[in-house]
Amino acid sequence: MSMRKRLIDDVFGGHEDPLTRIVVQVGSATSPNGVKTQPKGTFYYIDYDGDNSDGDVYINTDGATAWTQIRNPV
After folding, report:
1. What pLDDT, on the 0 to 100 scale, is given for residue 47?
2. Are 73 and 49 in contact (CB under 8 A)?
3. C-alpha Rg value of the chain to the nearest Å
4. Count of helix runs (H) and strand runs (E) in the chain
5. Which of 70, 73, 5, 74 is nearest to 32 (CA)?
6. Phi and psi, residue 45, nearest 5°
7. What is the DSSP annotation of 44-67?
8. Which domain range does residue 56 map to?
9. Are 65 and 34 spatial neighbours (Cβ–Cβ below 8 Å)?
């Protein structure tokens, strides 16, 4: 198996086009960790101008409710 295929399987749950799995949260700065369920490798973008969370990006790491923040523009 190629390294590209292994990385896609490990990080994105085998989904070949990870940018089609993006959830955008508007109107709240709440982290999805432990709350939102999505497939492994889904991106979660916070679009909220109310505080420093605007532009935060998380990725789902288990296909359930575990999320890791991968971008914090502040």
Report:
1. 92
2. no
3. 13
4. 1, 4
5. 70
6. -110, 130
7. EEEE-TTSTTTT-EEEESSSSS-E
8. 3-71
9. yes
Q: Give the total number of structural domains in the chain.
A: 1
Give the separation between CA 35 and CA 60, rounded to whole angstroms. 11
Long-range contacts of 17-25 (CB under 8 A, 24+ apart): 18/43, 19/43
- The two three-digit tokens of residue 49, written as one number: 């101008």
The candidate with the shortest Cα–Cα distance to 51, out of 25, 24, 74, 18, is 74
In tens, the pLDDT along 8-35 reads 999 998 888 989 999 999 988 899 999 9
Question: 7 by DSSP, 3-state: which?
Answer: helix
pTM reported for the whole predicted model? 0.86
Convert the pLDDT of each residue in 31-71 to its tens digit.
999 999 999 999 999 998 877 778 999 999 999 999 999 99
